[in-house]
Amino acid sequence: MSVSETSASDPQSETRFHLRYLVGIFLVAVTFRWIAQPPLSVWPLCFVALVPLLILVELRPRYSRRDYLGFWGAATIFWLVSLQGIRHANPLMYGGWFVLSAYLAVYMPLFIALTRTLRRRRLPLLAAAPLVWVGLETIRNYFATGISAAMLGHSVADVPVMIQIADLFGTYGVSFVIATVNVALFVIASIVRPVRFAKWFGDTPGRGHVVIASAIGGGLLVATIAYGQFRLSQPSTERLATFALIQRSEPVEYQQDSAREQEIFQQYARDSITAFERTNEPIDVVVWPESMFTGGYPWMIAEPDASIPGPFEGSASEFKLAIDSFRDYFLSRNADVQNVLESVNGNHGKPHLIVGCGVIRYHEKTSIHSGIVHVGTKGNIQDWYAKNHLVMFGEYIPIVRSVPWIRDGVPDGLMVTAGEGPVPMQVGNTVVLPSICIETAVERITINQMRQLDDDGKTADVVVTVTNDGWFDDSSVIDHHRRCAQLIAVGVRRPILSAANNGPTAWIDHCGRVVDSLATGSNGAIIAAPMRENRVSLYVKIGDWPAKILALFCIIVMIDRRRQAYV
């Protein structure tokens, strides 16, 4: 039996708790958090989900390492359930699923530990808990490449009035408000706790503390709602280009033969034709999900310094002829698709294509990219974008490139090369910022790219993201991905148009509202006509440095905690 040890320096802390009681309280917190998010999405529970953790913060007895291991185990279960869709991608991903869940599980016990440390330093709970929670969310958005999914603020993604402050401080700001309300409710509830529990906690908060907590928590919530109402009431200016977002539910594998890739290409082409047949709305752009346009023929680029890859048998001139032949076929195929789409309906001209497609670039070293190619109305390649932020264990495995005997046995899908920086794509009067897959699940990526374009005087009008979430079957991972995109849409104050294999295919406006979406696992198309929003958000202008300050604050508290040996 494991119990929490008492502190010799604190004679009042005589009560000992069995580990199962502590973990039981913790499990209530993670259960509330899970119910508040997809697939159940009972969002009001997010306003009390941290209360059980605050109980654990305020309990007087010191915790043993075994107690914290119990918290970590319960948190691991939460993340395993929340992200269970990851395991469907590939047998290799089972290990990644467990490692990622075990890593993310560290943050909730760490929240308890750091907040207890600050309470011992006499910092009020109303300040300590929100600061630590948001600071830790910031750390996990950066550490080990970062991930934003299932932040506390995402719980209210479908409550537009609550998320408009994301244009000021990102999802971090929404999380801060929710955490503050949790603390206020905890303080209010503490005044009515039974006398027999008093010895387990610190002093019962006085009437003044309750008034302050109510004023701050309630005031912050009211201010958030008022700001949300204000932003939601502001009209947009003019209509942008019209986009056809194509979705199918195609089973995919890391290693697919050329015939299967061509079959997928034909299926998407047929659904694009169907989308054109079913609307009289002139369509400017057709968007296909990540890699679906490859069709066995990636776009190839041979730089002047290109070296001949090992598998190719022939001279440098023969290699160049082979690349030119591939490129010619690729371009003629583009023109064929556009010609067919133009002929389907007299209201349509030749559309631009902004499509997910593999890109192979031959230079000193051959690089394989998960890309987006922008095909102009004449079938030419106007721009291409290489995914900047890759999925660890999904698109690359650290160190593997440096170990030839391991590298040779890794599928090409796990040997992707990252691109560098944003690439604006011009369609008539509309500037598109392209994004691929996880880049809308790591909030800073889109924010930083939008800021870079703004600094260069090339502000984007709409974010177009392509993804292949067919890896995750019909799991709630797809809903988490969409919610990340909703908060980013508010953060950059731009519509986000998502075209996905299997889902989430959605038209999200600049206020984070889902204007239209397709059911996960369905086949179809969305005709999206987003509106222009000219304002540049504060979040884009200043970035996430306020959240980074809180992250630094948490790191300092960690160092202080180790120095003081608090448990």
Automatic annotation (TrEMBL):
<feature type="transmembrane region" description="Helical">
    <location>
        <begin position="92"/>
        <end position="113"/>
    </location>
</feature>
<dbReference type="InterPro" id="IPR045378">
    <property type="entry name" value="LNT_N"/>
</dbReference>
<feature type="transmembrane region" description="Helical">
    <location>
        <begin position="210"/>
        <end position="230"/>
    </location>
</feature>
<keyword id="KW-0012">Acyltransferase</keyword>
<comment type="pathway">
    <text>Protein modification; lipoprotein biosynthesis (N-acyl transfer).</text>
</comment>
<feature type="domain" description="CN hydrolase">
    <location>
        <begin position="241"/>
        <end position="532"/>
    </location>
</feature>
<keyword id="KW-0812">Transmembrane</keyword>
<feature type="transmembrane region" description="Helical">
    <location>
        <begin position="19"/>
        <end position="36"/>
    </location>
</feature>
<keyword id="KW-0472">Membrane</keyword>
<dbReference type="Pfam" id="PF00795">
    <property type="entry name" value="CN_hydrolase"/>
</dbReference>
<keyword id="KW-1003">Cell membrane</keyword>
<keyword id="KW-0449">Lipoprotein</keyword>
<feature type="transmembrane region" description="Helical">
    <location>
        <begin position="163"/>
        <end position="189"/>
    </location>
</feature>
<dbReference type="GO" id="GO:0042158">
    <property type="term" value="P:lipoprotein biosynthetic process"/>
</dbReference>
<dbReference type="GO" id="GO:0005886">
    <property type="term" value="C:plasma membrane"/>
</dbReference>
<dbReference type="Pfam" id="PF20154">
    <property type="entry name" value="LNT_N"/>
</dbReference>
<dbReference type="GO" id="GO:0016410">
    <property type="term" value="F:N-acyltransferase activity"/>
</dbReference>
<protein>
    <recommendedName>
        <fullName>Apolipoprotein N-acyltransferase</fullName>
        <ecNumber>2.3.1.269</ecNumber>
    </recommendedName>
</protein>
<comment type="function">
    <text>Catalyzes the phospholipid dependent N-acylation of the N-terminal cysteine of apolipoprotein, the last step in lipoprotein maturation.</text>
</comment>
<keyword id="KW-1133">Transmembrane helix</keyword>
<feature type="transmembrane region" description="Helical">
    <location>
        <begin position="42"/>
        <end position="59"/>
    </location>
</feature>
<feature type="transmembrane region" description="Helical">
    <location>
        <begin position="68"/>
        <end position="86"/>
    </location>
</feature>
<dbReference type="InterPro" id="IPR036526">
    <property type="entry name" value="C-N_Hydrolase_sf"/>
</dbReference>
<dbReference type="InterPro" id="IPR004563">
    <property type="entry name" value="Apolipo_AcylTrfase"/>
</dbReference>
<feature type="transmembrane region" description="Helical">
    <location>
        <begin position="125"/>
        <end position="143"/>
    </location>
</feature>
<dbReference type="InterPro" id="IPR003010">
    <property type="entry name" value="C-N_Hydrolase"/>
</dbReference>
<keyword id="KW-0808">Transferase</keyword>
<comment type="similarity">
    <text>Belongs to the CN hydrolase family. Apolipoprotein N-acyltransferase subfamily.</text>
</comment>
